[in-house]
Amino acid sequence: MFALFKKQNQPTETKATNNKVTFQELLDIKDIRVRRPSNGISSIIEQTILDVLSSQEDKGGKKLVQLVSYIFNQLGYHTKINDGFNDKKQDVLIFQNKDDDKPILVIQCKSYSPQNTKDRIKIGALSDFVAYTEDYKDCRMFLTTSYFYPKTIEDFADRVILVDRIGFIALLSKAFPIETANVMNTLSLHDIKENCKECRHGKLQLLFFNNIPNFKCTNCATKYKAVNRQPVLYKREKY
Description:
- By secondary structure, this protein is α+β, with helices and mostly antiparallel strands.
- The protein has two domains: 35-186, Trna Endonuclease, Chain: A, domain 1 (3-Layer(aba) Sandwich); 191-236.
- Helix content is 32%, strand content 20%.
- The chain has a five-stranded mixed beta sheet with strand order 1-2-3-4-5.
- The longest helix has 14 residues, at 40-53.
- The radius of gyration is 21 Å and the shape is elongated.
- The protein starts with a helix and ends with a strand.
- Mean pLDDT is 87; it is low at 12-17.
């Protein structure tokens, strides 16, 4: 199923007419008529991104580990989730080819939400990771949804690829540009309280047409009637 998603979402070559490239093609701006997710896998990716970047607790970091695996699959690599009590600090293993014995990259993931965790990644966490990955000195990554303390960066940036929340969002944008943009759109509308029941994470914007109130999802374009100023599911619109 994910393989089909990859095939449908591969970057397409820039089309030129009479050797001229439009600004939309040059800037790689997705056509507004087709930019929204059109399959179940894409919706799952979006929801997982939103969950991982939100203040919700990610028990055991399982959602983050799965999302990291999705990212590298989408970028053309093979992955193995090695998360568990005996993972030796190696949550996700990245392989160039499916049948390779040795990974080309080992990743430890730490799901720490800055919204509800009063801490950042300390030296101890990197010391343990380095100790368990001596065989992968040039190919190891520590990825977190939080940030690193300055001393941690100073001591380990030369030995480990350090990916903090900002770097992680950049990585998401590379692998899943449309899904990540949709999630960033939702997160930017945090003052709107009502959520869409169809896509589960779009926000419901209150609109007035001919002085009649209704709601429209900012993500999936589902329309709601306003009954006593409360949204009641009405229909899914194209845009």
